[in-house]
Each structure stands twice: as structure tokens, then as C-alpha cells.
Specification:
There is one protein chain. By secondary structure, this protein is mostly beta strands. The chain has two helices and eleven strands. Strands 3, 4, 5, 6, 7, 8, 9, 10 and 11 form a nine-stranded antiparallel sheet that branches. The radius of gyration is 16 Å and the shape is globular. The termini are far apart.
Length: 150
């Protein structure tokens, strides 16, 4: 399938990469179909709207920089996208890269949970106050390395 993307113009991607988000993402509830694909730099991914090329998000696996990250979502919430066990889920968080050069951050309060078998997804809101909408990724990586050294 061909899709017009924000970052790369028109690209050809596999239909298997399509993700359906029944409730949409917060602030983008009218956009339900996305394509998930590798970004040009690991460990990032693009989540690109199928319907609007200007709507695209950079994602990262939060466990890469926060080994202690916990996603506490109700079974009912997960059932909405067909997840019955943790091994069916992929967890990502949305990354913000400010144009002014300030630190790159990740939204650990609103993870994107994907059912990797059905390719359906949801965005959760975690109630644990430990998780914020702007975690400095590099600072978290450095803090994690320091904790491992001690």
C-alpha cells in the first residue's frame, strides 16, 4: 500500500503494518488508522496517520530507558483491543523532539498499547503520579546507567 507520510513523502508499506485505534489517540480521536514503521534512527518508530499526512508521531519502547516502567491498565481496557495476556502487547510511548534543541522527552503517562496479533491499539492514561507526560529520555538513560553501576 502507498501512503503519503509527513517525514518521507509517498512510501510503500505493507498492509500488515496498519494499526486500528478504535478510540483514536488523545487529541486525535477522529483519526483511527495508522501505519507503524521503523524510523531512520533506531530505536524509534513512526506512527503515521493513514488519512492525514501531517499527523505522525515518533514512538519508542519505554523499557529501553526505564526498566522499572509499569503499565497498569484494567483487563476491561485491554479487552477492548483483544489483549488477553501480556505477551500479545507491544508498548510504546510518544516522543517529543523540540525544534529549539531542548531535551527530547517521552510521554510515560499515556502509553500506546498495541495488540500485535490483531493490530489494534489504544492509548491509556496511567494514574500513577510517578509517570509524567515529559520524561527527559537522555537523563533517564543516564540515571538508569548510574543505578546499574551502584
Amino acid at each position: 500500500m502507498k501512503i503519503d507520510t509527513k517525514a518521507f513523502g509517498i512510501v510503500e508499506l505493507d498492509e500488515k503494518q496498519k494499526i486500528f485505534i478504535p478510540q483514536g489517540l488523545f487529541g486525535f480521536e477522529d483519526y483511527l488508522e495508522y501505519i507503524l514503521f521503523d524510523a531512520e534512527h533506531e530505536p524509534f518508530y513512526w506512527l503515521q496517520s493513514v488519512d492525514e499526512k501531517e499527523i505522525a508521531f515518533i514512538l519508542i519502547n519505554p523499557f529501553l530507558f526505564r526498566k522499572d516502567y509499569e503499565v497498569n491498565v484494567t483487563n476491561e481496557g485491554l479487552a477492548e483491543i483483544g489483549i488477553t495476556s501480556p505477551d500479545k502487547a507491544l508498548i510504546f510511548v510518544i516522543v517529543t523532539i523540540p525544534p529549539d534543541g531542548s531535551p527530547m522527552t517521552a510521554n510515560l503517562q499515556g502509553p500506546v498499547i498495541i495488540n500485535k496479533e490483531k493490530m489494534t491499539a489504544m492509548q491509556a492514561v496511567l494514574s500513577d503520579t510517578k509517570w509524567k507526560t515529559r520524561h527527559d529520555i537522555m537523563a533517564e538513560l543516564e540515571a538508569g546507567a548510574a543505578r546499574r553501576e551502584n
